[in-house]
Amino acid sequence: MKDINKKLLVSLLETPSPSGREYGVEKLVEGYCLAKGYEVEHAKGGLLITKGKPPEGENYPCFAAHLDTVFDDRPFRVEEFVNSKCEPVFQGRKNGFRCGIGADDKAGVYACLHLLDELPFCKAALFEREEIGFLGATEITTHRLSWFEDVAFVIEYDSPCSNRHTYTCSGKRINSDKTFIEAKDLLEENGVTVHSNDPYTDVLALASAGIECFNLPIGYRDWHTDRETLNLTELAKGIELGKKLFEKLGLETKRRFNR
Asked: In the CATH hierarchy, which top-level class contains the domain 6-249?
């Protein structure tokens, strides 16, 4: 795995993106992707990014995250420290006091960009306004569902810590029994043992539209608070787990719910 691009990660974190005002981070992401030659569609509800084309008989791996945070648009700076396990961790400081950094879900946005850079072909969906009811994901699945036609399934990075993933979202399964059974050993071998029922995130819109999903941990803690941190070791671990999951489940099958 290529090293974490701390400069890009800090730029994402320090660019304010309150729900409904994501234009600054969208401009940053769009500029980064266009400079790399990726295709970027600024759809109603977020950014849809495509790199390359899959070989015949395969589909795209697709990753997702949300662009907005619960924090305001006042500037802050990211600080790095080393925890008791000698792991690098980011936290925020504003006017001399700790503050949240929006790693929920800028860590996920970074993971998507990292994977776009690393994989030969890939799609990424970056949604607006998740924090106020996954509105961007709902708009995109309503108006641009066809964009997901050639993806195998979707992995979102919007679960905290390193051991927790979304099993159900608002009581709805986001993947089938068959898919979960195929993935379960890999998840648990990589320390993901907490099968959580979460209130909502973007995968609920995707699963409701028939697309099977996972929502994996990406290393943030104490989200939505001034104590929020991002563990970079766990960030890297989450990125690798997403790659392993696509390798294990394969790209030949479009995993969909029977509707």
From this structure: alpha beta
